[in-house]
## 1
Amino acid sequence: GVGPIGDVETGFEWRLYRGHDDDWRRLTWPPEAIPRSLHSIPPADEASTEDRLFAVPLSNALFGRGQAWGLMRSTDGGRTWRQVLSGLGDPYVMDLTSAPISPGGGDHITLAVTWYSGAHRLSDSGDSWEPMPLDTEMEPSGGANPYDLAVAISPDYDDSAGSGLVMASFSRGLQRWAPATEAWQTVPLTVTATIEDFDPPEAQLTAGAIAFSPDYPEDGTIYVYSGYAGLFRSTDSGETWTRIDRRLPLPPPFVIDFSLAVASADEAYILLDTEETDSGPGQPVRILYRTLDGGKTWDALNNPPTRGWVSAFVLGRDPEGRVVLHLGGSQGG
């Protein structure tokens, strides 16, 4: 978990915690670095007992202040951190994901997307990133919504068998990567902005968040959230897309933070900013929405049991297979 300590007047100190059940331990972390996301990867071999942690700090240097933190990795459970930037081309890491190289295997592949250099991959045994280049010239940023930069791996990904799919958004387009061909294919879909009279009025589909259905091998379902164009769903492995945000109060571009999770082909959750400001942290109030019919309708999950508004959420399942929501409050807890 991540969270700011302090208030609007004195400024925030960012702290990083790791917990099991109700036992939380503060990790070593530079207090001025804003954690954008945290990723845990199981040990690479039986001799290791600690998960490997990757932390993606928000690169404030993109906004003209502070330093570019790049990508941080810990191999000792968060006691120490070091940058892992060799081969990336630029330090502005925007998203990261990891998955087993083959289903049930111990070795993992880790993918990252950067602002200027696009997609890269890192194997368990390496400390240097390998580019996954486009056939066309790389363009910086995510597109009409500059922060539409994301990457996700399908649950059936198998590098050796050449099966599964990688979806990524970079170089002003939504890209598909099949391990069998080891090449990117840009999704050729022009979309319109979520608000009228926005410049540009049309652009290529991009995404700030990408989520596969857990049953993707059977249902082929993928959800993407574009800060420029809204929410889309595909049921044919990303070949075609349908917009599914009717009556969903999407914030206008430019969207920076994205929170999207998928429980099944028809059940998905999205956390959206509102125009109201939370008096505690001074950030926009957020509301969590859920669909149970593939995006045809959405319901707000009101009165969450949190201190303040929902600031973050994670999906899980209990031993009976029921969906469990873990919520973080804007004022702690």
## 2
Amino acid sequence: RCVSETDAADIDLAVELYAEGGREESFLEFVDSTAAHRESPDIMVLKTVLLVDAGRYDEAVEHLERLGSSGERETYSVVGYLVRARRRGTVSGNDPVLRKALETFLRDHGSSAVAPGVMFVLAEDLRSQAAAGAEREAALGEALDMLDRILEHPKCGFYREPALLLEAEILLDELHRADGAIEALAGAEFREEDKAREAERIIMRALIEARRWEEAERRFSILSGDPDSVKAAVGRYGMGKMHFHRGEYGTAVDSLSRFAESHPWSEFANDALETAMLIREALTEDRAALDCYRGGYVALDGGRVGEAADSLDAFRQRHPLSLL
């Protein structure tokens, strides 16, 4: 670790005192004079985070450039503060400074043992940028490149599993490249139970989205017998959703109803029950109406909102009297 808990606590305390004192310019002047007298990188770190807290982001970025050549610990201190501030919600609008801090650290200390953690934060930041609509495709591409850098880093350690999962999520949910998400997780082994479960959730959704039916049926069947009840639930729910997506309505109703009854604790129980009830009710109408409705439902399930809206509009025009 580059920064001790004491360093982090000291930085946070200094910012808190600065804020409580009304963020007076005299405090920054005192820090400036101390930095000039002692020529201490630690004082430069303090000045940078105080400028961020004051909302003087352009000046903070200038200080970051000077910090980059000071040392790994100093730049990482600023990165740590900015990440903590974002998570606490105590600083808003500091994205340009955080981005600069991350990029500066990786430029000067990319081989560091903590670099994979910095890369992961930058990948998350790029994903958030894409969600805000700013140069979406470019931001997502950069995020995927950053995640690949983590996986190639000799010291990726703890961040290997989170990077694999985030890469698969971006491919599936943002780029709708289901095959790519499956390949990203193919053969990956997860030591942490919660991450292994999350991988199965992503693969389940991706196999259905990609319409890889034989592979899906085989995997869901095996997973349904897993001793881990959460993984087994993913397999059984996936089997029911697969039947619905394939238009096998009777089998889907039976499968999803049984799942909802036997797994009321599952995160998928409500959706399984609602889908089964919807299919059962729709089957009392024209099957063609259900087929048309399913097209929009499947698109929405895959995150393709525009396609779903078009399909459901077409459904309403063709079947105006439907109760669906």
## 3
Amino acid sequence: VGVVLRFCACCTDTVLFLMFGGCRTSFDGCGLCSCVVIFFVVDFFFTVVLFFFFKQKTAYEMLRSLVGSEMCIRDRAEGTDKAAALAAMALLAIDRGRPSAWRSHRTSSDPDWRAVGVRTLTLAEEGQWRRAAMVDLDQNVRLAAAQASEKAMDPADRAALLDVARNDPEVLVRVAAIRALGWIATEQDVHFMRDLWPLAPAPARQALVSAWAFPGTMERRGLEQIRWVAETETGTPAIIAAGILYRYGESTRGVGAAMLRKAIQQGIARDRVFAIAMAPYREPQWLELLKETAEQAEPIVRVAALEKLALHPETAAMAREKLGHIAVSGQAGQHE
């Protein structure tokens, strides 16, 4: 449970950034923002683990409280102020709320509500309005337009999305455009996306690797780009690429395995932990590597390896015992 809580805590700011862009400042003193973040982070992670760590009755009670959180957000979205717009955007992010009622806000003079209206433009016949919003003066409106485009999957958006991915001043908007383009990219678009790589910041590079792996795009030379990243780059993008290659098929499994092993054995702690999370654990050779890492690596990496070993029947008891010792000693926390 402590591992999950720590992971959720680390992800909170990232989730806020991905969902609300420029609303970081609001989070510091806004109860609604806290409620939204708790709802989304907990809803995503805890639903997976509740029944493994808690008694069934306790799990049901916690899940009921999550439903109450959503109802709170729905009620708050009925207002007209900035917080109401934030609540409405949160609901749209999970395909809830009242998009038909909010669509009229696309022309609002208030940028927060204009973003809400633009986020509802997910139909092909609304493409002209959606593409116009991609060059709005407000970054949250541009972000909403790119997110709406990802849901629309309209090939007519390709040129506009590529322009946003190249030129938007906000990294988050570029990331959203890259993701949207990944669902509709042609082979030529895949090459254009490769041209973005040299000057792309880290989040955009990670988005490029993910977009190249989207269905259809992977078959349109996306796989070549992923292999290039795995073989020539380092850090998170390369680890993502290696994980994709390992799971794609026999033709790429060897390259992916080699890159993942290298990432587990070398590099900074954060990358090693991520590589461990991406690695399989059921095969004997991976199990041995994880055992070795759990004995020799720095504490935070050892914890990641032991958490993986705790999933395997043969090593579960040993791993949990060692995790308990580390938790009591506080070694991992000292190095985080």
